[in-house]
Amino acid sequence: MPRVPFHYIDLRTFCYATEDEKRVEEAIRAFLPEEFELDRMENAGHHGDRIVVLSARVENADDMRLILDRLAELDEIDRIMDELDERVDDNCSFFLRLDKQAAFQDEVELGKGITLRAKVEAYPAKHEAAVENAREALEQSRS
Predict the structure, then answer these.
(1) Mind listing the pLDDT tens digit for each residue in 49-58?
(2) Among residues 1, 66, 67, 116, which one has the fewest Cβ atoms lying within 10 Å of its Cβ?
(3) Burial tier of 63 (Cβ tally within 10 Å: 0-12, 13-18, 19+)
(4) CA distances (Å), 143 to each of 6, 26, 64, 72, in order?
(5) How far is Cα 52 from Cα 42, in angstroms, rounded to an integer?
(6) What's the Cα-to-Cα distance from 12 to each of 9, 78, 133, rounded to whole Å?
(7) How far is 20 from 18, CA to CA, in rounded Å?
(8) In terms of DSSP bridges, do strands 6-16 and 93-99 run parallel, antiparallel, or are they unpaired?
(9) How large is the greatest C-alpha to C-alpha distance in the chain, in angstroms?
(10) pLDDT attached to residue 143
């Protein structure tokens, strides 16, 4: 089984007062293994409205593979691979924003709503090495 060159993958989304929390939870769970535990934090917006933050940190290699396999379904996966230099920061973190509404419908699209941050393994911890490791992981998930 191929190595997963990530320390962890974080997923996070917000559920605003106008949204159904169960549906937002379903959207983020579209990228997670069954029964994966979500962290839930309740906040108040600028006008006192309720905002619930749902997040998950995935550290198990098999669970990270599941997320990568879902990302491989993106129509724009080639574009993402072309943009890896911009999507991986100097701290070796890979960033992606996914469409929350599409995820609720069990589809994978770029968009607003769900933030993915993956800490890329790179030794030494250099931007170029992290980009190459992220590219390798995405290419493996496509095959």
Answers:
(1) 999 999 999 9
(2) 1
(3) middle
(4) 18, 27, 16, 9
(5) 4
(6) 10, 24, 23
(7) 7
(8) unpaired
(9) 50
(10) 74
Is-contact 118 131, C-beta < 8 A? Answer: no
- Domains, the chain, ranges and CATH? 6-142 (3.30.1440.10)
User: Which tens digits make up the pLDDT trace of 56-81?
Assistant: 999 999 999 999 999 999 999 999 99
Cβ atoms 28, 58 nearer than 8 A: no
Distance (Å, whole) CA 69 – CA 80? 14
88, 79 contact by CB (below 8 A):
no
| CB-based contact 37:56 (threshold 8 Å) | yes
Distance CA 57, CA 80 (A): 22
What single string gives the DSSP state of each residue in 35-73?
Answer: TPPPEEEEEE-TTS-EEEEEEEEE-SHHHHHHHHHHHTT
Divide the 143 residues of the chain into consecutive groups of 10 and give the mean pLDDT of each group: 86 96 97 94 90 97 95 94 96 97 97 97 92 93 81
Q: What is the pTM of this model?
A: 0.93
